[in-house]
Design brief:
Layout lengths: L3 E5 L4 H13 L4 E6 L15 E4 L7 H5 L6 E4 L11 H19 L5 E7 L8 E3 L10 H19 L5 E6 L1 E3 L12 H10 L5 E3 L5 E2 L1 E3 H13 L5 E5 L5 E2 H12 L6 E3 L10 E3 L2 H7 L7 H11 L10
Parallel strand pairs: 1-2, 1-4, 2-3, 4-5, 5-7, 6-15, 7-12, 8-11, 9-14
Antiparallel strand pairs: 10-13
Helix pairs in contact: 1-6, 3-4, 5-7, 7-9
């Protein structure tokens, strides 16, 4: 019997990039994607050859849906990712119950689980974000991700021999985020302002720094959680090198062959995160993987892919 891999949220931004890479990397495995399209789009999976299941993961029994199927690995990326979603019940229920269903399904099986957490668990604390830092989520999205980590830790106390790896994704950008529209990365949003002939708008004076990580590097971190990690744990998944919004605009001008100056405006938020930076010491040690894309290299690759200049789908 062929080995099987499951990707939840596989029609979403990171999930689709992951699914298509797994398809290429593991051609002898049967690949199954589950998604309900709330945070995804069908065109992200152009070229996908596996099985697709349209379902709300938070409301189904995987044992009834998949029977006694045993997966070698499950990559859980299904999530309400819009940080502007303020319905606390909806955000928390969907994100937490989806993972709970997966944990019930894999309990006692030889299945590796890699799930997406978020740098939002750190809250708005500025500076280097270390795994030992307290988790202080500033919104319900970050709160729901903290609960995923808590749930995974509780599961591992009961099933210590299973491997469960959580990855705190930082500011991801790259192909197949077009459907996210206003929730897409600043790289995508600033590019489209500039392509429309507008000055890219950023808070004064564009020197705020974020840990921007290209999606191809995120995919490698995620796969490494399955193929290279020897033990369970939560790890940062970022570039480890914070860059400013001015850096993005400067790079976009070069890539798009434009010369447009930023439009700086006052920041209306009293609590705003001026700096994020992933401490990757544990990530490099346990996942044996390092980012390969600088901001410049990532934006250039993004542009060459054709996805940077795509307009959002109407449906």
């Amino acid at each position: 019997m062929s080995k099987k891999i499951l990707v939840t949220g596989g029609a979403g931004f990171v999930g689709s990039n992951l699914a298509l890479t797994l398809q290429e990397r593991f051609p002898k495995h049967d690949l199954i994607v589950i998604d309900d399209f709330r945070s995804g789009h069908f065109r992200n999976l152009e070229g996908f050859k596996g099985d697709f299941i349209a379902h709300d993961l938070s409301k189904i029994c995987l044992s009834q849906l998949l029977g006694k199927t045993t997966f070698e690995a499950i990559f859980h990326l299904s999530s309400i990712t819009d940080t502007t979603e303020h319905d606390q019940f909806k955000q928390t229920y969907d994100n937490v119950e989806s993972l709970r269903n997966i944990l019930k399904f894999i309990a006692g099986k030889k299945t590796s689980l890699v799930y997406a957490s978020s740098a939002a668990t750190y809250g708005i604390a500025a500076g280097i974000n270390r795994l030992s830092d307290p988790r202080k989520p500033a919104n319900v999205y970050g709160f729901s991700k903290v609960q995923l980590e808590n749930l995974a830790a509780q599961f591992l106390r009961e099933y210590p021999r299973q491997k469960v790896v959580g990855l705190r994704y930082f500011n991801v950008y790259g192909p197949r985020e077009t459907h996210k529209k206003s929730a897409a990365s600043m790289t995508y949003q600033l590019a489209h302002q500039m392509l429309a002939g507008k000055r890219p708008r950023v808070f004064k004076h564009g020197e705020q720094k974020r840990d921007f990580i290209y999606v191809k590097d995120i995919v490698e971190f995620t796969i490494a959680g399955f193929t290279k990690a020897k033990k369970s744990g939560v790890f940062n998944a970022g570039s480890g090198k914070p860059r400013s919004f001015n850096d993005i605009i400067e790079t976009l001008n070069k890539v798009l062959k434009l010369k447009i100056t930023p439009d700086y405006f006052d920041n209306p938020y009293p609590f705003y995160q001026p700096h994020t930076e992933a401490d990757l010491s544990a990530t490099k040690k346990e996942l044996k993987t390092e980012p390969q894309y600088t901001l410049e290299k990532g934006i250039e690759d993004y542009f060459k892919s054709g996805w940077l200049t795509m307009t959002p789908p109407k449906v």
